[in-house]
């Protein structure tokens, strides 16, 4: 089959690789109809997540048709159309029983790496390095889906791929980011990053009752998309200080909650950025936490900072004083996708949201390398690329 392979820093290639096979009785094989490139794939592309190996198959946002199941699979059968959540979860461990699927205790065969880096291992994730199990991803024609009874969401009501594909990651991730803000009527929610996850965080904040949403980014087309869904905007390249701008917009109080939908490769004008970029390049720090620092500094005392942008390791100049003295509640996590899929499918069914609004580009799987480059460089106002297998 054809698959999008990581071949080194800033190098992906669509190559012929062996077809996946059933390895365990709880596996299913899915013939992929649509898959997407995610902002977090860019962290792999740019070489910021160690533990990638040449030839690794990328992709954790995918859907398609079940073409084979192991003898232990009960909830899906050959011919079913499914969306596959990015965390692989066993459904029976202590974490899964508490709906903390992205930290499932049973699905990461490379636990030692997570134990070294994070103290404990996290769940397996499709196409996301050997730190999360080294599972082949779904930017391919086929994928092996372990624990097929726990993840895949059956799609039965004639939705298009584009309406439901993002149940695999970015819609639940954005929704969890907003849910962690514990939104009350009248709240103002600031969102750093108006990429696809940021857009879903904003949409979800409105769905959960936020009165105002403020989007912070530097790309006019992304800010326009945020504005189109009702958000106010700050172009951080055009204001002296994001924190001052947010204070001006909230009567000096600061947003009730701040969502970091940026993560480890943040950008900023001026010297702060060069400082972090140099430290990250020399591995003195692993992440550039510019958005996270700003979110903590901007948040109102007693408010919540919700972190859904991906971080990989250690950071520098963390504003612990602001966090502690202002009584900031920090909420975070890789999304526990399986917790949200039925609820969010319901919102799509009810016409409350059509997740396809973020898609700006459609390509063939063969063009994935071009897609990565285009998304990376934000060419042609690229917000979200869907690849058709
Ligand atoms: Zn993703
Ligand atoms: Zn589990």
Structure description:
This protein is of the alpha/beta class. It has 13 helices and 18 strands. The protein has helices spanning 39-45, 94-97, 111-118, 161-164, 170-179, 196-207, 220-228, 242-249, 271-281, 290-298, 320-325, 341-349, 368-376; strands at residues 2-6, 12-16, 28-37, 56-57, 62-69, 81-84, 87-88, 124-125, 142-145, 153-154, 188-192, 212-217, 232-235, 257-260, 304-307, 329-332, 361-364, 385-388. The strands form 4 sheets. Strands 3, 5, 6, 9, 10, 17 and 18 form a 7-stranded mixed β-sheet that branches. A 6-stranded parallel β-sheet has the order 13-12-11-14-15-16, with helices on both faces. A 3-stranded antiparallel β-sheet has the order 2-1-4, with helices on one face. α6 (196-207) links the parallel β11 (188-192) and β12 (212-217). α5 (170-179) crosses α6 (196-207). The radius of gyration is 20 Å and the shape is globular. 52% of the residues are buried. The mean pLDDT is 95. Bound molecules: zinc ion (ZN) (2 copies).
């Amino acid at each position: 089959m054809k698959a999008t392979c990581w071949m080194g820093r800033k190098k992906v290639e669509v190559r012929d690789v062996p077809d996946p096979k059933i390895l365990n009785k709880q596996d299913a094989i899915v013939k992929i109809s649509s898959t997407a490139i995610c902002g977090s794939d860019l962290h792999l592309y740019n070489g910021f997540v160690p533990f990638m190996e040449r030839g690794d198959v990328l992709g954790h946002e995918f859907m398609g048709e079940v073409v084979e199941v192991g003898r232990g699979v009960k909830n899906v059968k050959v011919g079913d159309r499914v969306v596959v959540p990015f965390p692989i979860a066993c459904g029976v461990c202590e974490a899964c029983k508490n709906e903390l699927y992205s930290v499932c205790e049973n699905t990461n065969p490379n636990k030692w790496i997570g134990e070294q880096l994070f103290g404990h291992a996290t769940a397996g994730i499709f196409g996301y390095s050997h730190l999360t199990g080294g599972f082949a991803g779904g930017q391919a024609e086929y994928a092996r889906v372990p624990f097929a009874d726990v993840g895949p969401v059956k799609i039965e009501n004639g939705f298009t791929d584009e309406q439901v594909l993002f149940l695999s990651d970015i819609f639940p991730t954005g929704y969890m980011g907003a849910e962690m803000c514990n939104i009350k009527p009248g709240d103002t929610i600031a969102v750093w990053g108006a990429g696809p996850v940021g857009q879903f965080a904003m949409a979800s904040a409105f769905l959960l009752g936020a009165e105002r949403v403020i989007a912070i980014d530097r790309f006019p087309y992304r800010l326009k998309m945020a504005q189109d869904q009702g958000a106010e905007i700050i172009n951080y390249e055009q204001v002296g200080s994001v924190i001052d701008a947010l204070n001006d917009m909230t009567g000096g109080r600061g947003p009730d909650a701040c969502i970091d939908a940026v993560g480890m490769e943040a950008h900023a004008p001026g010297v702060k950025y060069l400082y972090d970029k140099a430290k990250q390049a020399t591995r003195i720090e692993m992440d550039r936490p510019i958005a996270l620092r700003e979110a903590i500094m901007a948040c109102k005392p007693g408010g919540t900072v919700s972190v859904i942008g991906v971080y990989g390791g250690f950071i520098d100049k963390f504003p612990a004083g602001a966090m502690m003295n202002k009584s900031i509640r920090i909420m975070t996590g890789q999304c526990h996708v399986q917790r949200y899929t039925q609820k969010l499918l319901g919102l799509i069914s009810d016409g409350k949201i059509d997740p396809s609004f973020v898609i700006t580009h459609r390509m063939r799987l063969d063009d994935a390398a071009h897609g990565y480059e285009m998304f990376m460089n934000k060419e042609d106002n690229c917000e979200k690329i869907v690849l058709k297998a």
